[in-house]
Amino acid sequence: MNRLKVLILDDESRITEKLKYHLEKRNFEVTTANTPKEGLVKLSEEKPGVLILDVMLPGMNGLDILEKVKGEYPNLEIIMISGYGDMDMVIQAMRKGASDFIRKPFQIMDIQLAIERTEKFLAMQSKLEEAEDREELVSKELESMIEKDFIGDSPQIKKVLKMALKAAEDGDVNVLVTGENGTGKEIISRIIHYGSPRKKKVFAPVNSSAIPATLLESEFFGHVKGAFTDAKDEKKGYFELANKGTLFLDEIADMPYSLQAKLLRAIEENMIKRVGSNQEIPVDVRIISATNKNIEQLIEDNEFRIDLFHRINTIEINIPPLRERKEDIRPLLNHFVESFARKKGKTKPGISEALVLKLEQYHFPGNVRELRNMVERAMILSDNDTLQPEDFLIKGDATPKIEKVVSTGGLNLDENERTLIEQALKESDLNQTKAATLLGISRDAMKRKIKKFGIEIIKDLQ
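^ that's the sequence the OP posted. Answer follows.
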């Protein structure tokens, strides 16, 4: 991005050189002139965005130059400076097109602020911020609306963020976010909401497993007075509260089967009925759901409706566990250390390479949330200037191990990998999610490997 060009025209070289020195330190591109003739030539050659113009110049009045220059360069911002003059001169300068008038003697900061108030500067800053936002995965505006715990350098996390921002562009598409506990499913959901046309409306998070079964329908759809014993007043449900916004259904796989049909109807028809009422109420809600469970398995077990599943996962975003993206541990660690140091009013400690190495070897069953808790504990208890492995509560090697693995393929990698997968499936009673956890990989990775090796999931494998 180009720097803003500034031309200083003043007959005192001491002033022009001093201003040039200080403005260049503030990242402006500065040219100087000490006579009107020299100034007009440089104006034509350099085409600056801002002209700092002295009123008292040899051979020509600064106000006359102002009028001439504005006639030839109407979009040029001109800041007048003078050690003389009254309010009439200021008014005259403004009428002729000056954007600001500063009296001598002045502070460098006065000139800097005058430049930063100009439309040229503001337009350039706007372009710079737009360019920075294009370079960043999450824009600064969006970042300010969410927790900035969803960061990383891995290709996996960049792909997740790209999908989330793509989903955000469409304000109506329903999204299913999958991943283990602690991977950041709600943060991704907030990124989708606050990056969408619905960002100025409500983001309503609902934990489907935290509401008593007897109150689920009332909580989602509301109720009228007298609908049941404790219904003493009318109440709006989550759908009405989130109207025009986003309803985030966390742990949707735990939603009772009986409620799933009513949820499906509300999503399909964009209409709800309060408990105890026959009146239909129109709603406009985008649904983002999240789960750490295998919904496809629940469908096979008749615990989740297949038609609802297809309604909520127009786009599915899977967040890989932290153990599958080790390169994200360092930036997350740095972020949490800096964040807790700021919150707790402490000096940010250093981070030893031994600690990073130890964390990269850890399995992280609790994912990013576990790392965050580790850092908070260390920041409270540690008195070290540099965080060390002993400051972190890491219970040995937490990587699950499969016992009694019999190698049949010598040193053949594919043969041994197939053996491990079959052993994991045996020990998990053919539950692919549990088998994936035993192997320390995601369910999607497990499915790909089963397909790769042509492993049949049949009873004979037990």
